[in-house]
Amino acid sequence: MVLKTLNGESFKALVSNGAKNLRLNYEEVDNLNVFPVPDGDTGTNMCRTIENGVNTIAKLDEKRIGVLGKELSSGMLLGARGNSGVILSQIFRGICKGLSGKSEVNAVELGEAYKLGVKQAYGAVVTPVEGTILTVFREATEYACKHINEESTINEFYELHLKQALKTLKNTKELLPVLKEADVIDSGGAGYVYIVKGIVRYLDGDEIELELSKEEDSSNSAAPIDFSAFGPDDVIQFGYCTEFILRLQSSKVDIDSFDIQTIIDVLNGDDIKGDSIVALKDDSIVKVHVHTKDPGKVLDHMRDYGEFLTIKVENMALQHNEQMDEDEREAKKQKVHKKYAVVAVAQGKGIKEQFKEFGVDYIVDGAQTMNPSTEDFIRAFKSLDADNIIVFPNNKNIIMAAKQAAKLYKGAHIEVIYSTSIPQCYSALTMLDFSSDDLTLILGNFNEAIRNVVSGEITIATRDTELNGIKIHKNDFIGIVDGKLVASTKDKIDCLEKLISSVKDLEDKQVLTLINGEDATEKDREKALELIASKFPHLEYGAIDGEQSVYHFFVAIE
Predict the structure, then answer these.
(1) Residue 530 burial (C-beta neighbours within 10 Å; 0-12, 13-18, 19+)
(2) How many alpha carbons lie under 13 Å from residue 284 in its C-beta half-sphere?
(3) Which segments of the chain belong to CATH 3.40.50.10170?
(4) What are phi and psi of 192, to 5 degrees?
(5) For the domain bounded by 237-316, which CATH number is listed?
(6) Does the N terminus or the C terminus of the chain have fewer Cβ atoms within 10 A?
(7) What is the C-alpha separation between 17 and 206, in angstroms, rounded?
(8) What is the CATH number of domain 5-203?
(9) Domain 334-431 coded CATH 3.10.20.90
(10) What does the alpha-carbon distance between residue 89 and residue 253 come to, in Å, rounded to a whole number?
(11) Which phi and psi (to 5°) does residue 373 adopt?
(12) What gap in Å lies between CA 557 and CA 532, rounded to an integer?
């Protein structure tokens, strides 16, 4: 088909086909890891991010591209996972801003929206790196915009966009030395190219028949009602969990300058006395979650600002019988106000238990292979009654989602610690002390602990390659220290010895903590501790059964 203009209906079809094409190829994107470790997840993260947006608009019968774009952007923003997913959500956030207020666009107008996508994505990254998805998207957009005019079709725009995207993707090896050394193209850029290929396929008449994955969402799933949970003689005790999406109306408020704090103040006020308040504003869309004993008053007040798109009200007596996250259930049970609370990302039963013993209030389930979304963090924040929430993402690929959630959440002051590994978090949590009541000092202690710890990881190589001058063969054990490959051996204990020996100024270190993964046997653990005792006698050492997947050992050396 040839499109001279693009409206909401056709835009939804294009993006959906792009998401489906990525779904067909996400594993290939996952495998484009610089490190040959079994934790590549760029394709998975981008897939789940765009699918969250597509599923948000799937049932909308909306022909105005500006209106549909806002809903798509909102869904991707909350569903964003991993750095690549967050950047992808920001790309579409910018594009959709450029579509705002329009019923349809021609190729030139679409190009202008894509330029806003470039600006938005680059602005969302503290230090943009060329040779990544950012470069692929920017150069593809610049090329397409340069070669279209008022007579161009939507098809021509995307064909030009794809042509340059493929060329730039191939060139990412030359822009980033680490990609050239590993002989891989940028994975985020590859994921984006699959989306554009899916769009072009649709315009060529090839609609992909595939059902997108839909994650379970307790807020949207229709669970069976337990009628025994609230009887005819019961008195409302817990109140109602009230959630709604509100479209701000220009006849009632100035949408651009409207401050979400206005709604938060009303919900906190004496008339409603709301609890567990979460209120997020995205252009003219406001999403609200509040616990209240009078949802009717909440709904009446909110119509002062706009009109409802969706409303959900549930008796919380029933919610107590629903299956929910263990930490969320514990937080609701305690209902203790804190000045400081801690959220940490972790995977592995032993690690989670150790972090809870240190004083972590909420564990967000996740790791390199299962990055939590922006909304997962918001769910954690809203379950805590705290003035200040300190977040440990514990993976460089999770930090952007945590920061995006912190920016969206208004119910507490959020500080995201730049922790990129479990050993860093372990070391920082040993310094957990709020007695000074000085947030600057508390954060300073955490950051100092992270700077002083050496973080090591041992896992299995998934392919042959050469990195950092080290030849790697598939199924070798590889050792990584602070993000740098230092060893590749056939035996995991030999790899551990090389990893520890590679640590700079090792003679000045005093303590080593070994965190055993689920794939490390009891014999492996015994051998590892014997090695440390015999080869590195100046180090005090201890071991924890972390039970984490993928990594046989985590090592913290201080």
Answers:
(1) exposed
(2) 23
(3) 334-431
(4) -65, -40
(5) 3.30.70.260
(6) N
(7) 9
(8) 1.25.40.340
(9) no
(10) 27
(11) -90, 170
(12) 12
